[in-house]
Specification:
Elements (H helix, E strand, L loop, with lengths): L1 H46 L8 E4 L3 E4 L10 E10 L2 H9 L1 H13 L3 H4 L2 H15 L14 E9 L1
Antiparallel strand pairs: 1-3, 2-3, 3-4
Subcellular location: Cell inner membrane; Cell membrane
Membrane topology: Single-pass membrane protein
Family: Belongs to the FliL family.
Length: about 160
């Protein structure tokens, strides 16, 4: 009789091991599918970037100026289009209210530029910094300084 008991015990343990493996696999698959289903919604909430503020741009009419040069050659001309990136609508309104002052400052700055310096990228980047400096000065004495975040070239012809 001991021979009959031994084989049935092995059959039961094989079935039991198989059922445990199947249950673990089903539980793991269900957990994985649930996690995958929950993950995109959670990731969207966690990684959703804050809405970037709408940029305020102020395009300026193009400028055509004679450039300073050692030979006093009148044929050295710069045709340049600029757009200012401003932090808010109030700054844009202030710049528009004092547009003649803004354009005058830019014209004076542009006519002092050297054609050789503007021919390379470094010279253009220096011009951007100079424009920011000159436009970040108060437009009216006693007023707060306006802020110009960036100066963008929309046209640039050096002749």
């Amino acid at each position: 009789m001991s021979q009959n008991v031994l084989p049935t015990a092995r059959k039961q343990s094989k079935w039991l091991v198989a059922l445990v493996i199947i249950a673990l696999a089903a539980g793991g698959a269900a957990g994985y599918l649930w996690w995958q289903h929950k993950l995109p919604g959670q990731m969207a909430k966690q990684t959703a970037p804050a809405e970037a503020p709408i940029p305020i741009f102020m395009p300026l009419d193009t400028f055509t100026v004679n450039l300073a040069n050692p030979a006093n050659d009148p044929d050295r001309v710069l045709y340049i289009g600029l757009t200012l990136r401003l932090p808010d609508e109030a700054t844009r309104k202030e710049m528009m209210d004092f547009l003649p002052t803004v354009r005058s400052r830019l014209l004076l700055l542009l006519t002092r530029q050297d054609a050789g310096a503007l021919a390379n990228d470094q010279g253009k980047l220096q011009l951007v910094e100079q424009i920011k400096l000159i436009l970040n000065e108060p437009l009216v004495t006693g007023q707060p300084r306006p802020v110009v975040n960036d100066v963008l070239f929309t046209a640039f012809i050096l002749r």
